[in-house]
């Protein structure tokens, strides 16, 4: 019997093909072959939202190959990914190939990992296409099309061309804009801490923090209060009043779901969500391991489940016993609770073979593949290990009416911590276990202590943090917005539309993003409502479970949406046509300047456009008027024409531009004050195509010298290199090092403690 196996990607086809014999032909659809048309809505609202799918432009060759292969097959097995998107691709592929196939035997094959055993087992147990999953994907596609294709034209008309709205994308933008409003409205509050450095009978000295007065917890608000406390502690005797020792068990975290993988990929590796998912896709589809050939290294990377198969657990237990010792293996394999919406037929993201250790295959992996595979391997192995045991000691010290507390913890048994520790989220408060491994001397109740010094410190409350990619993914998942498999695309879209800028790994809404968000919140309150959007996701889950017809879910959404749409078309303010006159005259042609909206927000433009294209930034005065923003001049000279360079502001912050623009259009990054060691040109700031900051010679492309790290204008004291660089280590924080790797000179800390963590190699 001749069988045709159809998958999505050529890489997946290559890996699967090596597991099957000569009676199998493996072909790739290269993603979707059918979709809604780009040129029109493609949904018949009057006919129960019937979609009009067409063959995707450029897919004719692929479709013809699939049809041709289907003519020669006695059996067709569609093995696309085991999720809604994969099911929809399978349905469209089946629809196309069945027209020319010589057989009616079209089956659906499901597997969560691309290994020989999993593939052969799946082919032995073929099933049918899950129409409920197809309906759920179709409902999501239609909902997104209705929102995108009907709101976006209004934004094009009222604000500017190229803008877009989305059912999930716009909610993500709202979350970022609302956080920015919180930050702007935040009023810092002063508070003080008081730390006592004490000594017992035996070393070491240790620190204790002021906790309470009498039995009431203290919050010291200002310097007057702290001075009153210091006066009350004058000549006080310090005595140990309570010693409490506890043995705490710290449990391992579950293996990765899609969302957690994106979060930890961002925190630990500095990867964007898109980069994490792209690398994971390659690990799933197969990597050539030399003599072993192409092997799928991880299970399917789009999953909400934390379930692990019994066979994989047993393999992990054997590995842990051999590598770490039997005391690290729990009595029973751990079971982790998955999200309510998770499909338990799927597994968590894990290595397909725990025995395949990262360092053993490092030579076959790209740097990004190795980093991500190691992260997945470490997390999975740790999830199958015993908890860590931590001895925690808490000591209360009485001094007059005040109580100080000293805490210390010692890892008694590392357990899973020998392999993996989850990074703390930016919005996560420190726990009691985060005291580090502070060592306390032997102390007993009643012991008298000597005061070495009292150290009062002033602090201010901090606003909530701006969103990093990891924190935004975490927030979207917690609120039930979208699906983790879509987060990478959502985050890319809001940046591509210039709604947000990513500066130092944090999202800042642009003026345009704030404007668009305000318009959408005002005119489409349901779509921009977090609860409403989360409820739509729940309805998509119901469709997949066969509990709700897809057309009913779309209808329930569209009826109120259509009313908002009609009102927005009539009532939304037309910013595109709005041109606010000013009293400022153009310094090039003398005509009045007007305020217009552009790519980066409002700006001054000459009313004589297109004859005069002069533009300027502006600032608002205290009395509500406007004036041209003063141009920031520099001592730099334009390398093209020799004129002075001025500071401008663009999408990614400040840059230098020739003062003779537009006659001379030369631009370059901000100068670092450091000269290039290769040709003597100035080293300037630049950004890679992924938005990462790096530093290179201003004479590019004639000189291609570049470094990722910010130059420090100081020669290396070890090798004499002309400058040092600011670097960052997750363990020790910022430090300064020679830009030459072979030198190895290091010192710390760097002046800028908030320097972003860059990738390893300069972009081309």
Brief summary:
By secondary structure, this protein is of the alpha+beta class.
Structural description of this entry:
With 764 residues, the chain is α+β, with helices and mostly antiparallel strands. It folds into 5 domains: 3-129, 3-Layer(aba) Sandwich (Rossmann fold); 159-183 and 473-571, Topoisomerase I, domain 2, CATH 1.10.460.10; 196-251 and 388-460, Topoisomerase I, domain 3; 258-383, Topoisomerase I, domain 4, CATH 1.10.290; 580-708, no CATH class. Helices cover 30% and strands 25% of the residues. The chain has 17 helices and 37 strands. The chain has a 6-stranded antiparallel β-barrel with strand order 9-10-16-15-12-17. Strands 2-1-7-8 form a 4-stranded parallel beta sheet, with helices on both faces. Strand 21 and strand 22 form a beta hairpin. The longest helix is centred in the N-terminal third of the chain and has 28 residues, at 131-158. The chain is globular. The model is unreliable at 750-764 (pLDDT under 50).
